[in-house]
Structure formats: structure tokens, C-alpha cells
Amino acid sequence: AQRVTQPEKLLSVFKGAPVELKCNYSYSGSPELFWYVQYSRQRLQLLLRHISRESIKGFTADLNKGETSFHLKKPFAQEEDSAMYYCALNSGGYQKVTFGIGTKLQVIP
Amino acid sequence: GAVVSQHPSWVICKSGTSVKIECRSLDFQATTMFWYRQFPKQSLMLMATSNEGSKATYEQGVEKDKFLINHASLTLSTLTVTSAHPEDSSFYICSATSPRGPYTGELFFGEGSRLTVL
After folding, report:
1. Residue B92: exposed, middle, or buried by beta-carbon count in 10 A (0-12, 13-18, 19+)?
2. How far B111 CA lies from chain A's nearest CA (Å)?
3. Contact A90 B105 (CB under 8 A)
């Protein structure tokens, strides 16, 4: 069975500091991984996916199959980055997505 | 972009009554929709996967007679909480995806529906 682990429930960083939100996964097949973000009082939305290899709002995430990780990184945190971040694993032919417990990122001014 | 809309956003009901929550994909056809429950400060808990034209697949521990899911069309899925009790009070969220078109693999979320059972 697939599993997504986000070890930190809360991550507080100062504005301008680097950010790394950790995500590890367990899946026997070929994983498709995503990061979703939920800003205050807004719906969940896709931030980025590993297959697109793009940077969104300064965030990047690299799939490391050896370490089974998909950490989300940003070199300089901004106040507007404060939100809940969920790592997600897509399996079963797009029929099921497993979410991590989420990490609340708090950027301190 | 793809938009998923939930209705109602808020609902308060008396214990023992049933409540229906609608989830609509506004500008795309959603062959698969998912229903989640989110407790305060906790992650999304997948309740069931709803496929258009077939019975929903419920996750372990979710009572199918309690949470009725119908996906009668490619743009609408409904969740009915039957004989609601205070412990059913929660935030219910739907999401939709479609293997066809440009949105393959991505989930689109509704804004959520907060249910309070008195």
C-alpha cells in the first residue's frame, strides 16, 4: 500500500530564510507526486507536480527515488507562503491519491 | 482552468436529519470524484471514490449506508449524510479528476462544506 509521510506538522521560518518541507513516500510502483497548497480560507490547489519539473512561486521539488523523497524547497521564504502544504502520491491509474498529513508553514516577518 | 463547486458551503441541521452536499465540475467532465473529510488541524481523510455511472468505492471504516454517494452524471456527485449525529460534524471536501483532456492526474478541489449537527 502507498503511504506519504510529512514528518513536520509545523514549520516556522523567518522571511528570507530558506524553506524545505519534507515528504517521503512508500510505493511499489512508479510514483507520481504532487504538492498541494491551501492558503487561509481558500480551497486546496495544486502547487506543482514532479513530472513537470517546473518552479511555481519560487518553489521546486525534485523526486529522489533512491531516498523515496519529494521535498519542497524555496530559497527565500515570503510571508505570503504561509499556508498548509500537502504532499500527495498518485497511484492506481489516477484513481486514487494519497495525501500526507500536511505541514503548516509559518513565515515570520 | 478547471473549477469544482460545492454547495452548500455551510449547513446546520438537527440530529437525525439527512443532509445532501453537491459537488459539480463546472467546465470539465469528471469521470472520477473523491470525497474527503477533514477534521480541525488534520489532514484530508479519503472517504470514498465516486465513478460516474457506478457504485462508489468506500474506504475502510466509512459506513456506506451512512454516507450515500451518487455520481449520476459527469459533472455532479452528491454526498448525503443520513441520520446525521453531532459526531458527523466536519468539513467535507470533494475533488474531481478526469483521465481525459489536459488535466490528467491533477485534482481539482471544491471549496468545502462545513456541516454542523446540533
Report:
1. buried
2. 5
3. yes
